[in-house]
Design a protein that fits this description.
The complex is a heterodimer of chains A (about 280) and B (about 325). Chain A contains ten helices and five strands; from the N terminus they run H-H-E-H-H-H-E-H-E-H-H-E-H-E-H. Chain A has about 280 residues and is α/β, with parallel strands linked by helices. Chain A has a single domain, classed as Rossmann fold. A five-stranded parallel β-sheet of chain A has the order 1-2-3-5-4, sandwiched between helices. In chain A, helix 9 links the parallel strand 4 and strand 5. Chain A is globular. The N terminus of chain A is likely disordered. Chain B is of the alpha/beta class and about 325 residues long. Chain B folds into two domains: about 150 residues, Rossmann fold; about 130 residues, Rossmann fold (3-Layer(aba) Sandwich). Helices cover about 40% and strands about 20% of the residues of chain B. In chain B, the strands form two sheets. A seven-stranded mixed β-sheet of chain B has the order 2-1-3-4-6-5-10, sandwiched between helices. Chain B has a five-stranded mixed β-sheet with strand order 7-9-8-11-12, sandwiched between helices. In chain B, helix 8 links the parallel strand 5 and strand 6. Chain B is globular. The two termini of chain B are about 30 Å apart. The N terminus of chain B is likely disordered. The chains are: A alpha/beta (about 280), B alpha/beta (about 325). At the A-B interface, helix 5 and helix 6 of A face helix 4 and helix 6 of B.
């Protein structure tokens, strides 16, 4: 995050600490709401902390609507707790906002919504649409002669949606070098494991065959995340995808790799255990 | 008003309208391989740097348009009416829900499309887009009005859907009268006080023929071009209810949820008046010439005339 000025970059330790705070808020807000999607939020959060916390994302924390800001498009909109916890870190949302998650009139809607929340660039909730939206932002930026970068995050189950591949093909055709995609490859979707529901296979090869530059990383290694984001940003001749191997529910033992916590909030006891583990 | 006898199809008007607003730097055109059909191709030829081909991929096209709208552009995205429907949820969730100003044009609406057959004849587009909160729905009747309304879209905030037709028909407007059109305001084409025929698209010309024939029987029919189905010009409808006391709607579209549906919804909650609907009766079309299909499916001036007589007979007192 920045306001167009140079900032000292956060250390790995500082970013990991930010991730830990975000994880605590993710479990707390889903517990408070009694609903939500902790699993995919916990798998995505390290990648998002890398993006927001290490000033890869060029935004102005004093002006959320700055027209020439970079865009972050959370296409897997059910991972809204991850987004809200980050927006809390950069000062757009308060703790009270987080705890109002999913309640009537809350700025923290069930799925991220640009109409409701400062700092949210896309109204998600229906999977498969974010990459297309990002491509539209990318083409507009190119028309404007702007060097803003468009970052999109999708889940691996989400890429079963055909529109993702329509967008992938179009992004290559239109040489969208300012478009960066992050695939949260956590291997679990709503009903079950991805390889049970519809195996998406070699994601890297698929994107590569669509003309994309591909980077594969461990999505929980902050070192690898920062290196990948840096590399992705330097690639300007073609769209670039970071395929990040992650663990659904990362950081909370009983949620890790557990399809049950795709869309289920922790109960009182589970919250207590989760907070102990995260503290 | 006097009407020139020749004209283009309403889709030609869309193409001409785009050219008139092309110099606005915010205007962009997005296509899904049917620009030659929807007529955005003229814009593309002249302004290639502001035109984007998305290939045969309507869902992606709609969200690309949304992303551009969220980045300060005013996108005009077009394909066949029926293929916009493939991306209905994209339009609903990705465009309309965040209130983004994307102008969608669906050409080849209705059974008037003809020999392509039922797969290309959208008879439900107006109904489904009417259900989306905040979305304006337009269906002009000739090339000049389509051009004028397209130009007016430049200053319209919020998502819109405009249906155009494939085939050439006689003009309803001339270059002077068309300037009086306004999005959201029905246009009185013919004055009368026995029955009010409210039509849209290609059925406006059929309504005028019906009104002429009714006049021969001493019946004075008003004809309104309701080029904007949503928001519906309820003020005009109410004034015509008082004046005429009964209505006929005429549309090349299902009677379920389109112009007839819109009138019925309004009339059932305020001033009540008999309403007869001319339109497609819950059935699909087939291949055939436009005139053959219109005859077979009950969308002719004769059908409008008979409906007018029935509506008049239902008036109380």
């Amino acid at each position: 995050m920045n306001s167009g000025r140079e900032h000292p970059r956060a250390s790995i330790e500082e970013l990991e600490e930010m991730s830990r705070r975000c994880r605590i808020n993710i479990v707390k807000m889903t517990h408070e709401a009694g609903a939500g999607h902790p699993g995919g939020s916990l798998s995505a959060i390290d990648l998002m902390v890398g993006l927001y916390g290490h000033d890869f994302l060029r935004i102005d924390t004093d002006d959320a609507d700055w027209e020439d800001r970079d865009r972050f498009i959370m296409s897997k909109g059910h991972a809204s707790p991850a987004v809200y916890s980050i927006l809390n870190e950069i000062g757009y949302l308060s703790e009270d906002d987080l705890m109002s998650f999913r309640t009537l009139g809350s700025v923290c809607q069930g799925h991220v919504d640009m109409k409701w929340t400062k700092g949210v660039d896309f109204s998600a909730g229906s999977l498969g649409m974010g990459l297309s939206f990002g491509l539209g932002c990318s083409l507009a930026a190119k028309m404007d002669g702007s060097n803003r970068t468009i970052w999109v995050m999708v889940g691996d189950g989400e890429i079963q949606e055909g529109e993702v591949w329509e967008a992938a093909m179009a992004a290559d055709f239109h040489s969208a070098g300012n478009l960066k995609l992050i695939v949260d490859r956590n291997g679990i979707q709503n009903d079950d494991f991805v390889n049970v529901q519809m195996e998406v296979g070699d994601v890297a090869s698929k994107f590569s065959s669509f003309g994309w530059e591909v980077i594969e990383i461990d999505g929980h290694s902050m070192q690898e995340i920062l290196k990948a984001l840096d590399m992705a940003k330097s690639i300007i001749h073609a769209p670039c995808v970071i395929v990040a191997k992650t663990v659904k529910g990362k950081g909370v033992s009983f949620m890790e790799g557990n399809p049950e916590f795709h869309g289920k909030a922790p109960n009182d006891n589970e919250l207590r255990i989760a907070l102990e583990e995260l503290s | 008003m006097s009407a020139p006898s020749t004209g283009g199809a309403s889709r030609d008007g869309y193409g001409s309208g785009l050219l008139r607003i092309a110099e606005d730097p915010r205007v962009v055109v997005i296509e899904a391989d049917l620009g030659k059909s929807t007529k955005s191709c003229h814009f593309r030829t002249k302004y290639p740097s502001k035109s984007f081909s998305m290939g045969i991929a309507e869902q992606n096209m709609m969200l690309v348009a949304a992303g551009m709208a969220a980045s300060g552009k005013i996108p005009f995205a077009s394909t066949f009416a029926i293929f916009t429907e493939r991306a209905f949820e994209q339009i609903r969730n990705g465009i309309a829900r965040p209130g983004l100003t994307v102008h969608i044009c669906g050409s080849h609406g209705g059974i008037h499309t003809g020999t392509d057959g039922s797969s290309a004849q959208s008879i439900e587009d107006l109904a489904i887009y009417r259900t989306i909160p905040g979305m304006a729905v337009l269906h002009p009747c000739d090339d000049l009005s389509a051009e004028e309304l397209t130009v007016q879209l430049l200053n319209h905030d919020g998502p819109t859907y405009m249906r155009t037709a494939r085939n050439k028909i006689g003009r309803i407007y001339d270059h002077d009268s068309v300037r009086e059109l306004k999005i959201g305001r029905g246009s009185i084409i013919r004055r009368g006080n026995d029955v009010c025929i409210i039509a849209c698209g290609v059925m406006v010309s059929q309504a005028l023929v019906a009104a002429d024939e009714l006049a021969d029987s001493g019946i004075d029919a008003a004809v309104i071009d309701m080029h904007t189905l949503k928001p519906l010009d309820t003020e005009l409808v109410d004034s015509m209810a008082k004046l005429c006391g009964c209505f006929v709607t005429a549309e090349d579209h299902s009677v379920i949820g389109g112009l007839g549906g819109a009138l019925a919804e309004h009339l059932s909650t305020g001033i009540t008046a008999p309403l007869e609907m001319v339109g497609v009766r819950d059935e699909f079309g087939q291949s055939g010439e436009s005139a053959e299909l219109m005859l077979k499916m009950g969308l002719t001036s004769e059908d409008i005339k008979n409906s007018a007589l029935k509506a008049i007979s239902r008036k109380s007192g």
